Amino acid sequence: MVIAIIAILASILFPVFALAREKARQASCASNLRQLGHATQMYVQDYDGRYFQHWFLSPAFWFGRLDASTSPATIHKEQGLLYPYMRNFQLSLCPSFTGRTVYANGATGGYGYNVAYLTNNFGESGVSEAVITRPANCAVFADSAIYDAKLDVAEETLSIWPPSTTIRFNFAVVQFRHTGTANVVFADGHVKAQQPTRAGDPYARFNLHHLGRTDDEYFSGR
User: Fold this and answer.
1) Longest distance between any two alpha carbons in the chain, whole Å
2) Could you say which of 23, 58, 70, 123 is the most buried, measured as most Cβ atoms within 10 Å of its Cβ?
3) Is the separation of the CB atoms in 156 and 101 below 8 Å?
């Protein structure tokens, strides 16, 4: 009888404990993104009001310098564009991200950059903050991942993309891994947990969904 009671209590309490742990990880993730948002604002102030590049032809990214001489490529994190403003690699790692890392020592750890609206020519150069008239509606970073069809896994990705791209190709890259929500930090510095746009997306089992229905909601800031 005692064992049966303990088993019943355990079946009730364990999910509660798991939810509490995830809520703690979500709070830690939100803190990381808030710090990344502050680091971005300091970078913009130091570089004539422009956001940083995110270009595949240049090895310098916000999270580190990509060294393609190794296989897989290595990230030199101390050479990241935001490193002088963070001095802490852990800020780049979402504690709830369990996907596959693409690079030898990991890169973003589950955070993607709004490359579509914060850069020109698919990342070649950063845009001026002056073009962002609604900073509270312009995501800078968000919880992200991408589906790898060959391995059937979710893995880290460097960018988040707006609905005009993800809905068009039905290929979401924002990951709602915090009990069905995704943390997003916006250009004005605030962090918010967002709900997915719709259910039934093809990679929903990896918590991959679209963020917003139009680019104006969370991406463009125009």
Assistant:
1) 71
2) 123
3) yes
The count of other CB atoms within 10 Å of the CB of residue 124 is 13
The pairing of strands 174-175 and 119-120 is unpaired
In whole angstroms, what is the distance from residue 12 CA to residue 28 CA? 26
Number of residues assigned to the chain: 222
Site of tokens 């460097």? 158
d(CA 64, CA 83): 8
The C-alpha angle with vertex 23 and arms to 11 and 25, in degrees rounded to 5, equals 115
Phi and psi of 99, rounded to 5°? -75, 175
Cα(73)–Cα(169) distance, integer angstroms: 28
Per-residue pLDDT reduced to its tens digit, 123-159: 999 999 999 999 999 999 999 999 999 999 999 999 9
Looking up tokens 């009671």 gives 5
What Cα–Cα distance (Å) separates residue 217 from each residue in 79, 129, 159, 170, 194? 33, 18, 17, 18, 11
